[in-house]
């Protein structure tokens, strides 16, 4: 994937998030979101290394992953607004966005839960003779969830074609990673016998290169790889944060963190007019997406428990 | 006619499904050597990809099964101890069960969870003697408690073929039951359909799993009076089948080997209050509120609902006592 495509993805995610935040403020999106602003290079670089039939699992902060894997922005926005035309027909919202047709096995709101789901899916595809790779995204906070560490063991033990992508943005809500993780993040992964690398999560091309190697390794049967991508969350943990007035990051830290902006890092690799053209393309795309999302129907309350069971005939 | 034990029936159902459907596989702790006997002989027949020995990682392998199900397989997980379901309640109630609705119907999670040895195992004490089916019914996970070998076979078959998560509780007290069964007659038993296992005219006793035996023994002492209804599936509950029985007897007693508050018996009584026309208030025989099974045998027995309690409750409703 080329320079322009990576830029298009980071820019799409950034502008999608900025618009989504304003829709939270205006009340179009109820329940708030966890903005991905600042971390776009990871989703863009990782997903650029994947084939369309590869699968991902995502997190509570999942918009970037879902968009980078190819989700339709209009349907994604409609999902955040709880509309029938949303990816999940308005049944999932921000933290559960999924598109199985694109290999998006869903954002997951339980920290650390999806690593084992991705491992099981990758193992199952391999058993069915398919060379599909699974990627599981999670944050630094998830590194302290036992269930995720159990999944590392299973994946490494059984050489499952899965890539674990830890987005170390320095905080789990307000808990600094230094106060939470004994030892090191990559050291933990290495202890399970898998290769683990720390990479610059602000540069989409570095993320793409590292993921391409990891995916190649997985596809050729050599098992899981762990990528710790160092990054910074430019915005709040959640759009409710300003109301809670949480104070855990200094102005100085914020400005240092924000100085390495993935959109700028990738944008600088484009000629000015090329960049302007992509920006305009994305604005038009998102204008259209917002129009579609806001114009689409709300689900019928009578169907509130539709889809609860796959085999509905059993339930009376 | 050959004798078939309950445990052997479960084993047979699992073997039959592994043989007939490539996408079925079983995973769990010590399933290769079949420590519980549920998977006896299956490793040799189907090999390591279909009978997968897992490390002690309940949370990860329960979600692993969800992932495998999302990728098109039909996993069956064996849990060695009923209380391990407390460890993986998140993975079943909050993950597997919720995927279909939360994704707007984009996927299904056909995982079966089997506990061969739920409830008191006599002398295994507090952390090994729970019988937590009510919890799963409460969150809406399909929940099955077979009472006899033919049902153990038929309900496990249906659970594996079902496209949703299903928990199958095989009570420790039922594993050894042996019945005369013609193997050729074994067939799938649909989920959500109960059965009158003994006809009677004066009182309907609802019993699950091993307690069906207790209810039948009591019915023997009161010939013709006690109708024993085995719902077989705790959730979904066969309300119509139960209603038909109660319409005849107009009296109801439930025996339920789980805790009293918010338990299965409480649910049946609530259904009765809403829908049935009873001549006397119904009764429930359960473990006490919040019970933890004590170790000493007499204490273990004292906490479980038993025959004496059931007899007392039946006499009370027959006399019309409050
Ligand atoms: C198991 C679990 N514990 C707690 C929470 C509440 N929670 C939601 S996000 C979050 C912080 C997660 O931090 P991290 O994994 O670093 O991801 P980040 O938010 O930084 O992207 C917490 C504690 C949760 N959703 N799941």
Structure explained in plain terms:
The complex is a heterodimer of chains A (316) and B (322). With 316 residues, chain A is an alpha/beta fold. Chain A has helices spanning 3-26, 40-48, 63-68, 73-80, 114-127, 146-157, 177-180, 185-191, 204-219, 241-244, 251-258, 262-267, 272-295, and strands at 55-58, 104-107, 134-139, 162-168, 171-172, 175-176, 196-200, 225-230. In chain A, β7 (196-200), α9 (204-219) and β8 (225-230) form a beta-alpha-beta unit. In chain A, α2 runs parallel beside α9. The longest helix of chain A has 24 residues, at 3-26. The N and C termini of chain A lie far apart (50 Å). The model of chain A has no long low-confidence stretch (mean pLDDT 96). With 322 residues, chain B is of the alpha/beta class. Chain B has helices spanning 6-20, 42-46, 58-70, 84-87, 89-95, 99-102, 133-139, 149-161, 211-221, 239-249, 264-275, 297-303, 307-319; strands spanning 3-5, 24-28, 51-53, 74-78, 112-118, 142-144, 166-171, 178-180, 195-198, 203-207, 226-230, 233-235, 252-259, 283-287. The mean pLDDT of chain B is 96. The chains are: A alpha/beta (316), B alpha/beta (322). Chains A and B meet through α5 and α6 of A and α3, α5 and α6 of B. The structure holds thiamine diphosphate. Thiamine diphosphate binds at residues 60-61, 109-112, 138-142, 145, 169, 171-173, 237 of chain A.
């Amino acid at each position: 994937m080329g320079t322009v495509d990576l830029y298009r993805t980071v820019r799409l995610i950034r502008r999608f998030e900025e618009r989504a935040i304003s829709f939270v403020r205006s009340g179009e999106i109820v329940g708030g979101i966890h903005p991905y602003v600042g971390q776009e290079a990871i989703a863009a670089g990782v997903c650029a290394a994947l084939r369309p039939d590869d699968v991902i699992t995502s997190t509570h902060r999942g918009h970037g992953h879902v968009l980078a894997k190819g989700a339709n922005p209009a349907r994604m926005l409609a999902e955040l607004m709880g509309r029938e035309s949303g990816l999940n027909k308005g049944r999932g919202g921000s933290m559960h966005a999924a598109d199985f047709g694109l290999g998006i096995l869903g954002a997951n709101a339980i920290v650390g839960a999806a690593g084992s789901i991705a491992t099981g899916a990758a193992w199952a595809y391999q058993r069915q003779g398919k060379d599909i790779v699974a990627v599981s995204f999670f944050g630094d906070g998830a590194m302290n969830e036992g269930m995720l560490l159990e999944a590392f063991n299973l994946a490494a033990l059984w050489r499952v074609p899965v890539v674990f992508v830890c987005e170390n943005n320095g905080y789990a809500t307000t808990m600094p990673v230094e106060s939470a993780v004994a030892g090191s993040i990559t050291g933990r992964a290495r202890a399970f016998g898998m290769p683990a690398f720390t990479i610059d999560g602000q540069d989409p091309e570095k993320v793409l290169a590292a993921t391409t190697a990891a995916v190649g390794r997985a596809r050729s049967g050599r098992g899981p790889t762990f990528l710790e991508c160092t990054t910074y969350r430019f915005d709040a943990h959640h759009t409710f944060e300003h109301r809670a007035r949480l104070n855990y990051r200094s102005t100085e830290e914020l400005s240092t963190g924000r100085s390495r902006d993935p959109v700028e890092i990738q944008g600088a690799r484009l000629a000015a007019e090329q960049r302007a053209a992509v920006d305009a393309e994305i604005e038009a795309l998102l204008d259209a997406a917002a129009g579609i999302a806001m114009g689409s129907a709300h689900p019928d309350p009578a169907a509130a428990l539709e889809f609860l069971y796959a085999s509905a005939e059993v339930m009376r | 006619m050959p004798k078939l034990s309950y445990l052997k029936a479960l084993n047979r159902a699992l073997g039959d499904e592994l043989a007939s459907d490539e996408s079925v596989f079983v995973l769990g702790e010590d399933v290769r050597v079949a420590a519980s006997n549920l998977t006896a002989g299956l490793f040799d027949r189907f090999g390591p990809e279909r009978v997968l020995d897992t490390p002690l990682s309940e949370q990860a392998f329960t979600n692993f099964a969800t992932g495998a199900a999302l990728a098109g397989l039909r996993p069956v997980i064996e849990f060695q101890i009923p209380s391990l379901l407390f460890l993986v309640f998140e993975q079943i109630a909050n993950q597997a069960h919720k995927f279909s609705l939360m994704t707007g119907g984009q996927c299904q999670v056909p995982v079966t969870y089997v506990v061969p040895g739920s409830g008191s195992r006599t002398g295994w004490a507090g952390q090994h003697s729970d019988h937590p089916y009510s919890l799963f019914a409460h969150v809406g996970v399909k929940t099955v408690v077979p009472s006899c070998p033919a049902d153990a076979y038929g309900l496990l078959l249906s659970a594996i073929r079902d496209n949703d998560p299903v928990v199958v509780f095989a009570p420790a007290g039922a594993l050894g039951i042996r019945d005369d069964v013609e193997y050729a007659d074994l067939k799938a038993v649909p989920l959500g359909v109960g059965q009158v296992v003994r006809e009677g005219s004066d009182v309907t006793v609802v019993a699950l799993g091993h307690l069906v035996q207790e209810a039948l023994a009591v019915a023997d002492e009161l010939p013709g009076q006690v109708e024993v209804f085995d719902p077989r599936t705790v959730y979904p509950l066969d309300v119509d089948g139960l209603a038909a029985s109660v319409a005849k007897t107009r009296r109801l007693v439930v025996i339920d080997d789980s805790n009293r508050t918010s338990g299965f018996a409480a649910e049946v009584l609530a259904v009765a209050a809403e829908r049935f026309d009873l001549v006397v208030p119904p009764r429930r025989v359960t473990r006490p509120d919040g019970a933890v099974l004590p170790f000493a045998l007499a204490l273990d027995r004292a906490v479980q609902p038993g025959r004496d309690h059931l007899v007392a409750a039946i006499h009370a409703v027959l006399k019309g006592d409050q």
